[in-house]
Amino acid sequence: MSKIIISPSILSADPANLERDVRLVEEAGAEYLHIDIMDGHFVPNLSYSANVIRALRKKSNLIFDVHLMLQDADKFIDEFAEAGSDIITVHQEAVPNLKETLKNIHSFGKKAGVSLKPGTPVDMILNVLDLTDVVLLMTVEPGFGGQSYLHQVDKKISELYKIINNQNLNIGIEVDGGITEENVNRPVRAGANIIVSGSAIFNSNNIKDTINKMRKKAEQGVQEREINNF
């Protein structure tokens, strides 16, 4: 789990130039593309539809890391799978039967992720870890980009990291919200290996340089974790 994966969030990209911005982060060495889908109900904001994924899929070889912040996520799994998602992540707080939802995602040949809001404890997903490929821990309250990183989530990242290691599970720990070049080592030191960043990447003067610096700082976090046996 020490390999660092960068997943730029297109929530902060230029909506009039999405293809250009996706190409820029792909050329800059990002592995994933984080795509937030919001319905205005589960979170107080609206964003992209499956049609955007369908259109971008033709233009990019990135892993499409699709985060469904939807009140009725179960109704849309098939649509987002068909559109070209590679990873489909749902919120524990938003689906009535998480096990069945994760099984449904896998039935389309996709990786399945579970996301937790900052205040939701890791205990809420212990019974589905065997069906989970990625756990996405929100490091801000979901809904809007440009928020500040919530340091208290570090403890939850570390807790999840220890559980995954103790059970010898192959699960990625993804973090999303307020992550910049300056603080990216914090969640990585705690155990994260998939880094979502929007504003810090797309609002920078040099996207490639920013991604490279963020990756280098994240790798320092891995070294700090190993030295301190976090």
TrEMBL record:
| GO biological process terms, semicolon-separated | pentose catabolic process; pentose-phosphate shunt
Top EC class per UniProt? isomerase
UniProt-listed Enzyme Commission number(s): 5.1.3.1
Q: Where is the signal peptide?
A: none
Gene Ontology CC entries for this record: cytoplasm
Determine if Electron transport is one of this entry's keywords: no
The protein's required cofactor(s) are namely:
Mn(2+); Co(2+); Fe(2+); a divalent metal cation
User: Which positions are annotated as binding a divalent metal cation?
Assistant: 34, 36, 67, 176
> Which residue ranges traverse the bilayer?
none
Sorted UniProt keywords: Carbohydrate metabolism, Cobalt, Isomerase, Manganese, Metal-binding, Zinc
Q: Name one GO molecular function term.
A: metal ion binding
For substrate, which residues are the binding ones? 9, 67, 143-146, 176-178, 198-199
Q: Which residues form the active site?
A: 36, 176
Is Zinc among this UniProt entry's keywords? yes
Question: Which InterPro entries does this one have?
Answer: Aldolase_TIM, Ribul_P_3_epim, Ribul_P_3_epim-like, RibuloseP-bd_barrel
Q: Which domain of life is it from?
A: Bacteria
Under the heading NCBIfam families, the entry gives: PRK05581.1-4, rpe
Q: Which family does it belong to?
A: Belongs to the ribulose-phosphate 3-epimerase family.
Q: What is this protein called?
A: Ribulose-phosphate 3-epimerase
Q: Which organism is it from?
A: Monoglobus pectinilyticus
